[in-house]
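Researcher: Quick sanity check before group meeting.
Model: Go ahead. Protein one:
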Amino acid sequence: MIEAHKRIIYKVCYMYANDQDDLNDLFQETVLNLWKSFTRYRGDSTYNTWVYRIAMNTCITFLRRSSTRPQTIPMTTDVARLAAEEEDVAGQLRELYRLINQLGKLERALILLWLEERSYQEMADILGISKANVAVKLNRTKEKLKKMSNS
């Protein structure tokens, strides 16, 4: 199950990591939390939704614990590799990640799920908010990102 959802876990952790070490720690912590809570999985939601929820909660808990550390902008080998392959796209990705890193926790989660092309219902299930609230908050977050990119 971990192997099947490895990309989801990585993407969630990447959005909350400050550097490669944090990314590795978050990934490992998420896998550990999935392992610990697997026996409590009731099947009320899909595995994808359950994995997203565990990963996001793990990352948010990590942020709370490390909130006393200075804020940094992540520089990963993945971004560097993209830059070598296609500089324009890599520059846009760096700018997008920089802007996303300035968002609040819920806003980051919403944008991540939206970029993953999740339905509003899936987002609502994962985040524990109503479908209508997802729509409102997502639209506000998109507008906020547009304003940030124009500044």
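Researcher: Fine. The other one?
Model: Protein two, sequence then structure:
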Amino acid sequence: MSRNGRTTKRLWRLRSNPLRRRDDVVEAWIVLAVWVVVAVGGTLAGLVTSHAADEVFAGQRAERHTVRAVLLTDTPSPTPAIGGTQNLIKARVRWTAADGTRRTGSTLVDTGQKAGSTVVIWLNTAGAPTAAPPSATEAGVESAFLGLTAALALTGTAFGAGAAARYRLDRRRIDAWGTEWNLVGPSWGHRTG
């Protein structure tokens, strides 16, 4: 088939045609709207989400800082880690705040340490123990994943809404054909079957 014939076949809904119904035009606009939402909206949703997540992670890296603390209790021996991840356990620690006061709290520390050991902990701007912020690489990967998830969610929603609208149009067309057949069929005379 020639290239021109293929293009004409693809754009059949938009061509002027005596058999084209109003529902066909509505369906053409629905298909166009779904593709615009997928292409433009999906891209924008992904980029905006990724950028927002990256800003949150950068803010966490900027507001959190490390201090040296003294472990107040022994931590149990490490268990074999799955996948080479580090064994962490919640334990009581004591540290000196920026204003010189001594504070105590609970945070995650490595296992297998004795009381009195020096550990490095992360504090937020309020001076409370918190988790370590994600590294720039971890934040980049997580931001990209969140952006992709947002883009796919919007794409799925758009396709679902478009499919539901087209299904309703199909049901309406089938009902119209049934009504028209009931009007025209008896005038044909003898029915088969």
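Researcher: One line on it for the slide.
Model: The first helix runs from residue 3 to 10.
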